[in-house]
Amino acid sequence: MKFQGIVFSVACFLILQAPIFSQEKVIEVNIEPDYAVKLAEFTPSGNFYIMEFAKDKDYKTRYRAFDSNFNLFQTITADKKIDGFEIGAISSIGNYFTYQRKINEWSLASDTELDMNNLTDKDFLISLEVLSKGYHVAIGKEIIDKKIKLFSNGAWINSEDVYSESHYMLRTSMADKKTTVFKIEVPEGCYFNGGSTKVLYHDNEHFLVSFYLEGNKTNKTYRVATYDYEGNLLGYVDVSLDILDSNNESFAYANLENGSFATVTVTKYYGLGNTVGNTDLDQYGFATVNAHCNIKYDPYEKAIYVYAGIKPKKGDSSILIYKYDTSGSLLWQRQHQLSDTQLRYLNSFNRYLSFDIYPQFIGVSVNSTKGKSYCDFYIVDKNTSEMIAQEKYDKYGFYSNSGFYDVKSKFSGLDSEYEKITGYKNLKLDRSIIYAALYSSAFKEHLNGLNNDGEFLIKGVFMDQGLNTVMSSKKGNKITFSRFKL
Fold it and tell me: What gap in Å lies between CA 77 and CA 333, rounded to an integer?
């Protein structure tokens, strides 16, 4: 790894537009020649980082991270291109990250690159990973005997992999690069896998893992387990979601952004004997158990949320939310109708139901990328469960930067979610920015000013201190990091 310089300018100022709104800090990072921005995002703590591809350098990827005061504190270079989708996890402040070059082969990038492969003399099927302060933790299952799997004509004809019944935690110290293997306990009826099992939360002392336990058409139950970093199971609680009117309602299928749908690619041949001629590749999305329900953890209030889209026999769909404390006690439950929204029982890959937990509120959004058009945003009070703001956008589109690999691409090569949304014709926005405009009328006025001044791409993350944003103009010659107090 090598350390490189940076060209940037910093401006700190205070602009009071309303009593509850101020833009407190700004840093402008110039895009240097021969660099193409791959990512400009946020670490789990809200710090900014940039990942770029380099041309005509003795390295191919450069990663830079900024601290909470917007000062550059970490630069990592790699002699290979690291794609955005290869990133596995980023440490809380952004001083190191993992990436996956091949399936089940992880590397960790820090001041010196640490090879996470061949950790022991055994092979592991890694299911989950955690980056805590000072440790990289991988949880997986040992593979005792590896055989070849054969797949033909849409069916498994030979599957002889033999897996052990034991799970292990591989803990690698960032200080001395030493890996220690611990056997990790699994609660009864639970299994580590990459589908319905996930890490909900982690800090320097412990981490929480949610397991899908059981469910049917009207109930879903999760088991939330707490672990220390030696694989010890410290305890667990069960949390459930029950449909309130089981005679007239059922779980809807929706894309909950949690692996709700599995994509399968099918090859079709047209020609003599289906062996020569034209070939088509068709992709199909199939709903998984995660399309019915999801679970999330609130790190600010130490609470657990379980939520689902609900489809009645007649009428508009709704979202059902259950809130629990960490002991498993129900704090409140609430069902909010999503007016003019039709979630379905089947074929709902293109219907998205998002649930975002911020320090100040819960953001709920529902939209369709195909078929019936709707794009609705709601803000829910975390204490009372009341819906305190909402907006329905009759005009909207979805933005993808086609020049993502081009040094001179527009908006500095950044991607967002929405474009041409009602009221913000010239802006590319992610949903946190839309929530911020709903939450703060002064921030909405700020967006209106940008919309009148030109074309900009803006995305953000809510933190205890307010809202951190990344912005680029269409010209794309610099990226602006800002912090707003809302």
Answer: 48
The number of beta carbons lying within 10 Å of the beta carbon of residue 15 is 11
Closest C-alpha to 169, from 197, 143, 140, 195: 140
Give the number of other CB atoms < 10 A from CB of residue 353. 26
* 3-state SS string for 334-391: EEEECCCCCCECCCCCCEEEEEEECCCCEEEEEEECCCCCCEEEEEECCCCCCEEEEE
What residue type is 485 in one-letter code?
K
Reported pTM: 0.82
- Residues 6+ away with beta carbon under 8 Å from 121: none
Q: How far apart are CA 399 and CA 417, in angstroms?
A: 6
Residue 152 has pLDDT above 60, yes or no: no
pLDDT in tens, 19-67: 356 888 899 999 888 888 888 999 988 999 999 999 999 999 999 999 9
Find the radius of gyration of the CA atoms of the chain: 24
Cα 58 from chain centroid (whole Å)? 32
